[in-house]
Write a structure and sequence with these properties.
heterodimer; A: mainly beta; seven-stranded mixed beta sheet; globular; B: mainly beta; four-stranded antiparallel beta sheet
C-alpha cells in the first residue's frame, strides 16, 4: 500500500524557518518525481515545487523561489521542503504528492498526481 | 505561467443530475490536463488524467474531454458522495498550475 506521511508543520513567526518531511512507503521512491502542493485555509490548490528522482532538476512556483528548497533522500525514502523567510501568505496545509507518468503510447509522458499525503499545517503568525 | 480558469466557481445540483465543469487554459496544454476531487478536510483524489483517462477505481459516471485549451469534466448522474470541490491541473509546463476549483453543492 502506498503511503505518504508528512510531518514538521506548526506555528512559526514571520521571517522564520521550518523543514517539512515526508516519509513514503509502498513504492520504489527513487524511481519517482515528487511534488509539494499547498492549500491556504479556504482556498484552492497551489503547486509549490517538484524534484526529479536524481535531484538534477527542481522547479518552484515564483512565490517561493529563493526561499524554499525541495530535496530528497532516496536511501531514507524521504522528501523534504526547507522553508525560510516565511510570510503570512505561506500559511497553508502542505501536501506531499507522488508524480506518475503515463506509460501508454497514447499518452506517453503526460504526468499527474496519483498519491497524496494527508497534509501538514504550517501557520505563519506572530 | 499557464493560467487555468474553471467555470463555474460553484454550482448547485441534485442527485441524479448531469453536471458539467469547464476548464480553460491560457495557452495550449495539449492533453496534459488532469482532474481532482477534494472533500472537506481531505487530500485531493485523482479522477481523470491525460484529459479523458479514468483513474483506476473511479466510477464510470465521471468522464473528461477536450484538448488544447478547452476541457470538460462531466458527472453523468450525480451521487451523494460526489458533492465536493473539483480542480483541473495542467502538467504541460514544468511550472504546474491548478484551476481555481468548482464547488458542487446540493
Amino acid at each position: 500500500e502506498v503511503q505518504l506521511v508528512e510531518s514538521g508543520g506548526g506555528l512559526v513567526q514571520p521571517g522564520g524557518s521550518l523543514r517539512l518531511s515526508c516519509a513514503v512507503s509502498g513504492f520504489t521512491f527513487s524511481n519517482y518525481w515528487m511534488t509539494w502542493v499547498r492549500q491556504a485555509p479556504g482556498k484552492g490548490l497551489e503547486w509549490v515545487a517538484n524534484i526529479k528522482p536524481d535531484e538534477t532538476e527542481k522547479y518552484y512556483v515564483d512565490s517561493v523561489r529563493g526561499r524554499f528548497t525541495i530535496s530528497r533522500n532516496n536511501a531514507k525514502n524521504s522528501l523534504y521542503l526547507q522553508m525560510s523567510s516565511l510570510r503570512a501568505g505561506d500559511t497553508a496545509v502542505y501536501y506531499c504528492v507522488r508524480v506518475e507518468y503515463c506509460l501508454s503510447t497514447s499518452c506517453y509522458g503526460i504526468n499527474y498526481f496519483d498519491y497524496w499525503g494527508q497534509g501538514t499545517l504550517v501557520t505563519v503568525s506572530s | 505561467d499557464i493560467q487555468m480558469t474553471q467555470s463555474p466557481s460553484s454550482l448547485s445540483a441534485s442527485v441524479g443530475d448531469r453536471v458539467t465543469i469547464t476548464c480553460r487554459a491560457s495557452q495550449t496544454v495539449s492533453s496534459y490536463l488532469n482532474w481532482y476531487q477534494q472533500k472537506p478536510g481531505k487530500a485531493p483524489k485523482l479522477l481523470i488524467f491525460a484529459a479523458f483517462r479514468l483513474q483506476s477505481g473511479v466510477p464510470s459516471r465521471f468522464s473528461g474531454s477536450g484538448s488544447g485549451t478547452d476541457f470538460t469534466l462531466t458527472i453523468s448522474s450525480l451521487q451523494p458522495e460526489d458533492f465536493a470541490t473539483y480542480y483541473c491541473q495542467q502538467s504541460y509546463s514544468s511550472f504546474l498550475t491548478f484551476g481555481g476549483g468548482t464547488k458542487v453543492e446540493i
